[in-house]
Amino acid sequence: MHISVYVMGLEHAILVSLAEKSASGYELTRRFGRSIGFFWEATHQQIYRTLARMTETGWVTYDVIEQPDRPDKKVYRISNGGQAELARWLAEPLERPADRDGLAVKIRGASLGDLPAVISEIERHRAMHAERLETYRTIEKRDFPDPAALSGRALHQYLVLRGGIRTEQGRLDWCDEALEALRADNSPDQADTNRRSE
Amino acid sequence: MHISVYVMGLEHAILVSLAEKSASGYELTRRFGRSIGFFWEATHQQIYRTLARMTETGWVTYDVIEQPDRPDKKVYRISNGGQAELARWLAEPLERPADRDGLAVKIRGASLGDLPAVISEIERHRAMHAERLETYRTIEKRDFPDPAALSGRALHQYLVLRGGIRTEQGRLDWCDEALEALRADNSPDQADTNRRSE
DNA sequence: CAGGACATGTAACAGGTTACATGATTAT
DNA sequence: ATAATCATGTAACCTGTTACATGTCCTG
User: Fold this and answer.
1) Distance (Å) from the alpha carbon of A187 to chain B's nearest alpha carbon
2) How long is the CA A1 to C1' C14 vector, in angstroms?
3) Which of A105, A162, B35, B192 is the most exposed place for a label (fewest CB within 10 A)?
4) How far apart are CA B121 and CA B175, in angstroms?
5) Cβ count near B59 (within 10 Å)
6) CA-to-CA separations, A11 to A83, A85, A99, B145, in angstroms, rounded
């Protein structure tokens, strides 16, 4: 005997999104490419397949909307069953996600390959995090100029954005720490005369 | 026509580990349950299956070691091909891993369920991060008392640990920020006038 | 008329997860 | 005796990834 712990998947991210506003698969795909996608990524194939499964389960229903000028679309909305499932899942403890950090594996293995190549790779990651951080900062300034005044849904959105900002800033700082240490180690003290650049 | 980008997997984490020291599947499983497991988790089934595949590919070889007192074991070591593959992979850009943050989904959906339950969940996560952080800090003090003196492999290990510390501290701080804001919003100013929640 | 946005899918494959399975030795 | 550790696997399933596939309308 055994209690199967329900593993979070795309379903719940879709339920949250549909609870905020009904949408077609295509529209959901775009949401998962921007706002929601910043903390839960999914492709259109994944979304269509999952929507089909959720329709079977009864968590969502859809209406076919005929559009004279564009292709027909199925607009999905969350059902009562879906709302119940969402409430249930929100109250349930989340499993710890597996740690999988490819950059850490590379740094750990740096002495087994080409150290300058690993340094370049860290620089690349630093740039990606800086770019993403800037995106987040822009959204923060634009959409949440007065955080202290926020409440309810807007506050929740802001807090998620804050999580993204902290994550990106943290990774960026880590890259800087690693770069400084690895560069110093790569071209150690040539006495006082120097060139320890590269 | 199409260039298939090689996606990082467990193989490279195993190559790094075996390059440091040869090991049986069982020993690797234990490593992936502690040191390496802090940044790349894997179960024994995954490891055995992957070792079998890597043996076919020629990245590792093994010797059967007969032990009088214990079951026989296969001790795997990295081959020349494996070392070449590792060097190749280290120099190759890593794909950005998909963002998937279940806690963020919950916070984003907090207004659709039971807010106090979501707050409890954040408290749970805060505790998990605090515990993990303490583990890391202990290792840091025990194994790296003098970081400035590090170089080579020891430095790389230290930097990976620093990444873990930054990640856990960052998540912990985020939990604190979210808890403070959500608690204030959950039980708003009963002070002079009102409740402006919802 | 070509390319991009709109709109929805199928199929094959790779990888991770869970359950099941076996069997020895050592310590309590 | 019973559990823990040592040691290695198979099988089924689920999810994510990649490639392939189809068709409309609008804009330049």
Assistant:
1) 11
2) 31
3) B192
4) 10
5) 24
6) 12, 10, 22, 46
Alpha-carbon gap, residue A131 to B66, rounded angstroms: 54
Quick one: tokens of B20?
């440091």
Chain-centre distance of CA A141, in angstroms? 20
Burial zone of B171 (CB within 10 Å; 0-12 exposed, 13-18 middle, 19+ buried): buried
pTM: 0.90
Kindly state whether B96 is in contact with chain A, defined as any CB-CB distance less than 8 angstroms.
Answer: yes
Q: Residue B5 has what pLDDT?
A: 40
Tens-place pLDDT, residues B121-166: 999 999 999 999 999 999 999 999 999 999 999 999 999 999 999 9
- Using the Cβ of B116 and the Cβ atoms of chain A, whether some distance falls under 8 Å is answered with no
Could you tell me where the beta strands, DSSP code E, fall in chain B? 23-24, 60-65, 73-78
Which residues of chain A make contact with B114, given a CB cutoff of 8 A?
87, 90-91
Phi, psi of A118 (to 5 degrees): -65, -40
